[in-house]
Design brief:
10 helices, six-stranded mixed β-sheet, alpha+beta, two-stranded antiparallel ribbon
Length: 364
């Protein structure tokens, strides 16, 4: 059997820290906080422009075949940018090589491996594109760069400013989140705007959290359901960038502002910023997944995660699918795998009801 790598038509630039957070920090009276945040915003804007130009100029290569007999192992390469902004940087660790003295390099290497492991072991997916895409990452990007991103081709990590953000390789769910943007790029290809963009972000949070839970061996009740825990320094009044368990409660800080994520459609945020609030309204599908996972119990990567993975890769989503269409697709995925009257399907229906999303009518 031969599999082929799908062509992506919307490889987008996606960051873990939302623009609204950096914007708050950039307006601080303390230049030690504001200056790095402004530089990060400027660097992010430049990367978005480069990504648009690259996308427009992109010429799709011939699909590469998957060798079914080949051993399915990751192919990781870590590069050191040495605080510059020219990618990829100098190669410092290759697949199978021993750990180096730089802990950031080793964490990036391990995080890529943890992501690869979940997708292969649990969902039988061979790397990000399904046919063994090499996993590249660049570390020590920029000066005090306060973000991490997937640029359509690789992971890039900043070291943080040491005032608000620590090293971005510290939380494994951040690594899993960004690489999952690549999975979405090669599958459902959800447009990065409005509700489809919020779903794009939410899927990355879901699988980023599952990668962390899988590595820790946690069940749904034991998991913290936080995205980016440990990323903030001690001066920040907050525990993470986002909470799937309780959207809107992850931080409340004089410099960062208050977490604006809604948990239900009653508080849906209408905004033209951040591509229509993709990092904000993702709290709603995030919370739906949390409700499903805790309702079903056990390991969230099993039944709940399988339904979300089936939805992402099933071919029924459109690039502009909204919450209602995604909810319908999850119901169909649950019914297909577990039965129309199975407890999993009923739990999916309940989870969307709890966040105020009504699935679109099932096609006859």
């Amino acid at each position: 059997m031969t599999a082929y790598r799908a062509h992506a038509t919307h490889p987008v630039f996606c960051t873990i820290v939302p623009p609204h957070v950096l914007d708050h920090v950039s307006r601080s009276a303390d230049s030690a906080l504001a200056d790095p945040a402004r530089r990060t915003l400027e660097q992010d804007a430049a990367q978005r422009t480069r990504r648009r130009i690259t996308t427009v100029r992109m010429v799709h290569a011939t699909p590469r075949a998957l060798d079914e007999a080949a051993e399915k192992k990751p192919q990781r390469t870590i590069y050191d940018v040495k605080h510059r902004e020219t990618l990829p940087g100098r190669k410092v660790r290759a697949e199978g090589s021993k750990p180096v003295k730089d802990a950031t390099v080793n964490r990036a290497y391990a995080g890529l491996g943890a992501t690869f492991e979940l997708y292969l072991t649990v969902y039988k997916r061979f790397s990000i594109d399904g046919v063994g895409l090499p996993l590249d990452a660049s570390v020590h990007y920029g000066e005090n760069y306060g973000n991490a991103f997937w640029d359509g081709d690789r992971m890039v990590f900043g070291d943080g400013d040491g005032e608000i953000f620590r090293d971005f390789t510290l939380p494994v769910d951040v690594i899993g989140h960004e690489l999952t943007h690549g999975v979405t790029q090669y599958t459902a290809n959800l447009e990065y705007f409005g509700q489809s963009g919020a779903l794009n972000e939410s899927l990355s949070d879901v699988f980023g959290s599952l990668i962390k839970q899988y590595g820790l061996g946690q069940d749904a009740a034991q998991a913290d359901w936080l995205i980016g825990a440990g990323l903030f320094t001690d001066r920040v009044e907050g525990e993470a960038l986002r909470s799937m368990k309780a959207p809107g409660t992850a931080y409340d800080d004089d410099v960062l502002g208050k977490d604006p994520q809604p948990a239900t459609m009653d508080d849906y945020v209408h905004t033209g910023r951040d591509n229509g609030g993709v990092h904000i309204n993702s709290g709603i599908p995030n919370h739906a997944f949390y409700q499903l996972a805790t309702e079903l119990g056990g390991h969230a990567w099993e039944r709940a995660g399988q339904i979300w993975y089936d939805t992402l890769t099933g071919g029924t989503l459109k690039p502009d699918s909204d919450f209602a269409a995604f909810a319908r697709a999850t119901l169909d995925a649950a019914a297909s795998r577990y039965g129309e009257s199975g407890e999993e399907t009923e739990a999916v229906r309940k989870s969307w009801s709890q966040v105020g999303v009504t699935p679109t009518e099932k096609e006859s």
